[in-house]
Design brief:
The complex is a heterodimer of chains A (401) and B (237).
Chain A: H1 4-17, H2 19-55, E1 61-66, H3 88-95, E2 100-115, E3 118-127, H4 131-134, E4 139-142, E5 156-159, H5 161-168, E6 177-180, E7 183-191, E8 196-197, E9 200-201, E10 205-209, H6 210-217, E11 224-229, H7 235-250, E12 255-259, H8 260-303, H9 305-313, H10 318-354, H11 364-390, H12 394-399
Parallel strand pairs in A: 3-10, 5-7
Antiparallel strand pairs in A: 1-11, 1-12, 2-3, 2-6, 2-11, 4-7, 5-10, 6-7, 8-9
Chain B: E1 8-19, E2 22-34, E3 39-43, H1 50-57, E4 65-70, E5 73-74, H2 80-90, E6 91-94, H3 106-116, H4 121-134, H5 150-162, E7 168-172, H6 180-195, E8 199-203, H7 207-212, E9 215-220, E10 223-229, E11 233-236
Classes of the chains: A alpha+beta (401), B alpha/beta (237).
Chain lengths: 401, 237
């Protein structure tokens, strides 16, 4: 039997003998691999970007919202709900569960604030002292809302960094008075800048005690309770503990528990499917490249019928002829794959450099798969022509013009 | 003649082709015994079955019936891959149109049977070098076939046919594409190989070349008509 090294060398000789033709065929595969890599790089980049956006508050968070919903999203506002409300006491009770580090009852709304002779409409969050723990945010100056007892919340306010700048400029806001609706608040702190989350400015905010927010918005119940648990604790364990505690308090499961982990998992799955889908789009051009290889190998077999007859006369077994032509199409395809890979990685890097805001990340597993796939395509594309070559009758092959 | 050590024994070989609807009897009851080291010319008009006989001897074709013994072994029943092995080790082919691989250099063409037989590269280099030297192709080794003259091409083809040191050399019109002088040279080369012990079977139209062989076989319509040894003894087939 012929040695593998010789088969590969023979294939390369045949490929070099038709430089232009081989190059164009390789180009077909190269463009396919290139587009797969580029598209999956963008897909993976978006994936990582979105996940980073969602995990910036920490991943060990559980959200509890009133009303039992089987699908996602908030219950429609304005429509009366029979669900029992989530209360401040519920939140306090959850704080005592094992593994739970903190729980913050949350109410939010949009209101006009006036201070320092200026007016600004901002998002107001009614939270408690655990907020900084739950959303891993920090205070720049002053302090955050103190842990007051239920019923004894003072009218204090902590400003987001942007809101502070808009209302007070460079002046020290600590101790200043801010009016929201008919209520007066005293500024005790300013948050560190947090940036944007999916286009929402997290710094154009104000934080007041939950009880004051319920009063401000004239609400009976909380909009959500956010629970943070110890890192390393099973999210499902904590979630079920939260569920049984609230069921005990409410008598029925009239609330919805969403763990951040579940949400991220679902999100990650969706984004993965997205990446695979765009990768498959690139795969179509790879398929076209594969058809190009079938074409060129079929032509090669026809052109070299004489040579095949000669090889058989010289003692080549049918399987050797099969392997020679298979080898040729695999080498052709794999070389195209390598070129496409290099070109794809270079383009992805270039994009990252030219458009830093566009998230691009080359998943190496995809690159490797693309390379293997190009080899497989070569193999599959080569089977038909190579089989044809190995089945030739040596006498007719020798006689062919 | 029918000694046990005969290299080739053909017994009642029949081979029929179908060209469209018509039946062609390429070989009709051919019986031949060829000893090791013989020099045979096969002659006859076109379509008389010469080439079919040669292909059959070279295991490129199978008889419809009959038995072919090569070196005491029945090769008619061998599997295609076993036949390929026999061709690789024992049979050398020389063609009228040379059949050199155009993209390969003279040296690489000569190396081809060694590569196909899976011989290791070090030994290959040695054997190719020796063959190139023996056939006076030293300064042509790195040329491609289209850069060689007809005679040089056939020398490369002969070097390729003999590089595996076969016992049987089959030449189909080896001088058909060559001028008279070059043809003479090639025939001389083949005769030298025969003198070294290789069994040589040449299919030719050329009476002059045929006459130089030690044994002439004439064919017509698929049958052996005459089988003459040393231009004197006559055996009818």
């Amino acid at each position: 039997m012929m040695l593998i090294r010789d088969s590969v060398q023979f294939a390369i000789q045949a490929i070099i003998a038709h430089r232009l033709r081989s190059f164009l065929t390789m180009l077909g595969i190269a463009v396919g691999i290139w587009s797969v890599i580029l598209l999956t790089s963008i897909g993976e980049g978006v994936h990582q970007y979105v996940l980073a956006e969602f995990t910036q508050f920490g991943t060990n968070v559980i959200g509890i919202s009133p009303g039992k919903v089987k699908t996602g999203g908030q219950p429609p506002t304005g429509i009366p709900s029979t669900a029992r409300l989530l209360t401040m006491e519920d939140a306090t009770s959850l704080k005592q569960l094992p593994n739970v580090i903190g729980a913050t009852p949350t109410v939010w709304g949009n209101s006009e604030l006036s201070a320092n002779g200026r007016l600004r409409r901002s998002t107001i969050y009614g939270v408690d002292a655990d907020f900084t723990k739950v959303f891993s945010s920090s205070v720049r100056i002053g302090s955050f809302l103190p842990a007051d007892n239920i019923g004894g919340s003072r009218a204090l306010i902590v400003l987001g960094s942007k809101l502070r700048k808009e209302l007070f400029g460079q002046k020290n806001p600590l101790g200043a008075r801010v009016k929201i609706g008919g209520l007066h608040f005293r500024v005790i702190g300013v948050m560190a800048p947090k940036g944007q989350f999916l286009g929402i400015d997290l710094d154009d905010t104000a934080f007041i005690p939950t009880e004051r927010a319920l009063e401000l918005y004239n609400r009976e119940g909380l909009m959500e309770i956010h629970v943070i648990y110890k890192k390393g604790a099973e999210s499902s364990d904590v979630a079920s503990a939260v569920k049984s505690r609230l069921k005990l308090r409410h008598g029925a499961e009239d609330f919805t528990v969403t763990t951040q982990e579940d949400m991220l998992k679902t999100l990650s799955n969706v984004l993965n499917i997205l990446t695979i889908a765009v990768g498959a789009l690139g795969g179509i051009s790879l398929l076209v490249g594969g058809v190009g290889i079938v074409t060129i190998m079929t032509i090669a077999v026809t052109e070299r019928t004489n040579e095949i007859g000669l090889m058989m006369a010289l003692g080549a077994q049918r399987i050797t002829v099969l392997f020679l032509f298979l080898g040729e199409s695999v080498v052709l395809s794999a070389l195209g794959g390598v070129f496409g890979l290099l070109f794809g990685v270079v383009t992805a890097q270039l994009m990252q450099w030219l458009l830093p805001s566009l998230p691009v990340h080359t998943p190496w597993s995809f690159a490797l798969i693309a390379l293997l796939v190009s080899g497989m395509i070569g193999l599959l594309a080569g089977v038909m022509p190579a089989r044809k070559a190995s089945m030739l009758d040596p006498i007719n092959a020798l006689r062919a013009e | 003649m029918a000694s046990a050590e005969a290299l080739i024994r053909l017994m009642h070989i029949h081979r029929t082709f179908y060209l469209g609807d018509s039946k062609v009897n390429a070989l009709r009851d051919v019986n031949l015994t060829i000893n090791q080291g013989e020099y045979i010319a096969v002659m006859g008009p076109s379509g008389s079955g010469k080439s079919t006989l040669l292909n059959l001897l070279g295991l490129l074709d199978r008889p419809d019936s009959g038995i072919y013994h090569l070196a005491g072994r029945d090769v008619t029943t061998l599997a295609p891959d076993e036949q390929a092995q026999v061709r690789s080790k024992h049979i050398g082919f020389i063609f009228q149109s040379f059949h050199l691989v155009p993209r390969l250099t003279a040296a690489a063409n000569i190396e081809l049977p060694l590569i196909l037989a899976g011989i290791n590269p070090d030994e290959r280099v040695q054997r190719v070098k020796q063959a190139i030297h023996e056939y006076g192709l030293d300064d042509r080794a790195q040329h491609r076939p289209n850069e060689l003259s007809g005679g040089q091409r056939q020398r490369v083809a002969i070097a390729r046919a003999t590089v595996m040191r076969p016992t049987l050399l089959l030449a189909d019109e080896p001088t058909g594409n060559l001028d008279k002088v070059t043809g003479e040279e090639v025939i001389h080369l083949l005769e030298t190989l025969n003198q070294q012990g290789v069994t040589l079977i040449v299919v030719t139209h050329d009476q002059a070349i045929g006459a130089r062989a030690h044994r002439q076989i004439t064919m017509d319509d698929g049958a052996v008509v005459t089988d003459t040894i040393n231009n004197s003894e006559l055996i009818t087939g």
